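Class, look over these structure tokens:
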Amino acid sequence: GDFDAVALDHGGFGGPLAQSPWPAGDPAKLAADLAAANMPADRFGLPFNILLVRMGAELVLIDTGCGTVYRPGQGNGRLLRHLATLGVQPEHITAVILTHAHGDHIGGLIDTATQSPVFTRARHFIDRREFDFWTGPTPDVSAIPAAARAASVASAGRCLGALASRWHFIAPGDTILPGLEIFDAAGHTPGHIALRFSSGNAQLLHIADTAHHHAISFANPDVPFAFDIAPQLAVATRRRLLDRAAAERTRLFGSHLPFPGLGHVRKVGDRYEHVIEPWPAG
């Protein structure tokens, strides 16, 4: 429609399938799904995609990536460099919307050298449930891997706390800006949200971390991701949003789908297929 959107490649991570973040999945089934998608059957990879949308006078950034705090030696932390390539400086961003407070989505909020906000002129939005969970006295992260619990709580608390006076709290159903609607996507985290952009007859549903992999998550919708705070709720949310997107033939953008993160979803029996959007010719 009338909005301009840019997908930004922020990096990613991966490794041997034996160390995958789907520990409840059948390894043979996961390998078969990777092979069916013409990918190496013994490895997984998750890209980090960030969405920038110009909506009239507003320049809206959805999530901020991991900054320099998460595996910087593996090519992560590209957001500011890519923004500069577009001629966009941090102070040009007018709104930052967080889908949730995991480190690969909030790490870019703070300059690690100065501990000061990066997007100095932006309004910052987060679901109230998300903020309250991570800044509360005892966030229950018992469902995620033990080795990651302390770091997850610490990084969320540090980034959210550093911007404590800047947050605007939102809830599912809110319309932050004309043409932008907030959807409940709780489960991956308590206040995880999806966002729908609408302009004219065009729509784009940003599913954030509702699905983490274009082959594994869609073919195994009932297998939780290792970092789901509420695994069964995350499964139910995934099915609910993918069912709706399939029925409405909605164009998708995902934080961890193959760059540039665009596609559609097709329902096949009790599972789904991600249909990657071809790069336009001509």
Observations:
- Residues 91 and 120 are 6 Å apart (CA to CA).
- The first strand starts at residue 4 and ends at 16.
- DSSP finds seven helices and 15 strands in the chain.
- The two ends are 20 Å apart (CA to CA).
